[in-house]
Each structure stands twice: as structure tokens, then as C-alpha cells.
């Protein structure tokens, strides 16, 4: 809402979008984020140290430690090459605790106009087949919860990345987690995306 108000003001009054940051810093959101700022980076040191530091910060210091822990590295740099790890065999969805993709997409009420410009773009269209598939075993097909990205064989039987942008839940995992930062997520035209009205 703060971003929308700042954008409206910028369009109507010609003011700067810097007023968004001023409004954000004065809001309850800023204080809440500041109090929780060390929870995630604490786990860089492992599960038990992370739990200990987070509990200490939450219950003793109430989020007011005099320093801020830093993240070790961005998420996309944490993706390791596939040959160093055994493949994971996931159990089939049971329909009670886990669900198949079509059911989950139906429940999210995701909708994008079929003729809108794609909101998921590849900076370099050769990276998926040249780098991601051979080195990382095509991580796009696994980190996306809606199976927007899938490798399908072409006429010659070579696997090619196919993007099902109409399934996108706008989680931005692809923008954050892609090992080569090759996927650019942009706001879709016309406000398409998940509706979550039947969950």
C-alpha cells in the first residue's frame, strides 16, 4: 500500500519515489523487519547455533541486538553443481498433505491472459541448455513450485527449456535462485497471477 500511495503521489504531484522509503521507515513494517533481521542469517552457522542465536535475540534482546548479522552469500550462489549430490526421489503426492501441481494451481486460482507479453524472460536464451542442464541438472524444473520451467525434448530429442508462464505463482524463486541469474521476473501485464480465493 505504501508503494502504491507513493507511486500515485509521484504521478499526481510529480513528487519523487524516495517518499516511499521515508514512509516505509516510519511504518510498523520497518520496525517489525528490523526486529527480525538476524533470524535467517543466524542459520549460516548451522541449525543449533541458528536456533540458539535466534532464541537469544527474540527472548532476551527482543530483536534489539546492537549489531546485524550478514548473510554469507546470495541464494543463487548457494546452488551447488549436481554431480556432487545424489538425485532426490520425492514421494508421489498423497492428496492429503501433498498435492500434484494441477491441484495446487487450481487452488491458487492462477490466471494470466494467454496473449499478454511474457513476464518471465531469459537474459541469455542459451544458458539453460548450455549451463544449467549439464552442470546443475536443470534446477529451474525443481525450485519452481508451479512447474513453470520444464525441459522437454525437441524434434531431435535434445532437451530444451520450455516456460509455462501462465502457471506462475509470482513467488520469484526463479529470480532469486537461478544459479546464473539468467531469469528476469517482471510484473505481468493486466494484474494476472494467483488469486488464492478458494484456499
Automatic annotation (TrEMBL):
EC top class, as a word: oxidoreductase
Cofactor stoichiometry and binding remark: Binds 1 [4Fe-4S] cluster.
The keyword Signal is assigned to this record: no
Stated role: Accepts electrons from ETF and reduces ubiquinone.
EC number: 1.5.5.1
Protein species of origin: Punica granatum
Highest taxon of the lineage: Eukaryota
Gene Ontology CC annotations of this record: mitochondrial inner membrane
Record key words, sorted: Electron transport, FAD, Flavoprotein, Iron, Iron-sulfur, Membrane, Metal-binding, Mitochondrion, Mitochondrion inner membrane, Oxidoreductase, Transit peptide, Transport, Ubiquinone
Annotated compartments: Mitochondrion inner membrane
Reaction(s) catalysed by this chain's protein: a ubiquinone + reduced [electron-transfer flavoprotein] = a ubiquinol + oxidized [electron-transfer flavoprotein] + H(+)
Cofactor(s) annotated in UniProt: FAD; [4Fe-4S] cluster
Compositional bias (Basic and acidic residues): 110-125
Family indicated by similarity: Belongs to the ETF-QO/FixC family.
Name of this chain's protein: Electron transfer flavoprotein-ubiquinone oxidoreductase
GO molecular function annotation: 4 iron, 4 sulfur cluster binding; electron-transferring-flavoprotein dehydrogenase activity; metal ion binding
Any Pfam family: Fer4_ETF_QO
The keyword Metal-binding is assigned to this record: yes
Span list, region Disordered: 101-125
Residue span(s) of domain ETF-QO/FixX C-terminal: 95-197
Transmembrane spans: none
Amino acid at each position: 500500500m505504501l508503494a502504491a500511495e507513493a507511486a500515485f503521489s509521484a504521478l499526481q504531484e510529480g513528487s519523487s519515489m524516495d517518499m516511499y522509503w521515508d514512509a516505509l521507515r516510519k511504518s510498523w513494517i520497518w520496525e517489525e523487519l528490523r526486529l527480525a533481521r538476524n533470524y535467517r542469517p543466524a542459520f549460516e552457522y548451522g541449525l543449533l547455533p541458528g536456533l540458539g542465536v535466534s532464541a537469544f535475540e527474540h527472548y532476551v534482546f527482543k530483536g534489539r541486538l546492537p549489531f546485524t548479522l550478514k548473510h554469507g552469500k546470495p541464494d543463487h550462489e548457494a546452488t551447488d553443481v549436481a554431480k556432487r549430490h545424489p538425485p532426490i526421489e520425492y514421494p508421489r503426492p498423497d492428496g492429503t498433505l501433498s498435492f500434484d501441481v494441477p491441484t495446487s494451481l487450481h487452488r491458487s486460482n492462477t490466471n494470466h491472459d494467454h496473449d499478454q507479453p511474457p513476464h518471465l524472460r531469459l537474459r541469455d536464451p542459451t544458458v539453460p541448455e548450455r549451463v544449467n542442464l549439464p552442470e546443475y541438472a536443470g534446477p529451474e524444473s525443481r525450485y519452481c513450485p508451479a512447474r513453470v520451467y520444464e525441459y522437454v525434448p525437441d524434434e531431435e530429442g535434445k532437451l530444451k527449456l520450455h516456460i509455462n508462464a501462465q502457471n506462475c505463482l509470482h513467488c520469484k524463486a526463479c529470480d532469486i535462485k537461478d544459479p546464473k541469474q539468467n531469469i528476469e521476473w517482471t510484473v505481468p501485464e493486466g494484474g494476472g497471477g494467483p488469486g488464492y480465493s478458494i484456499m
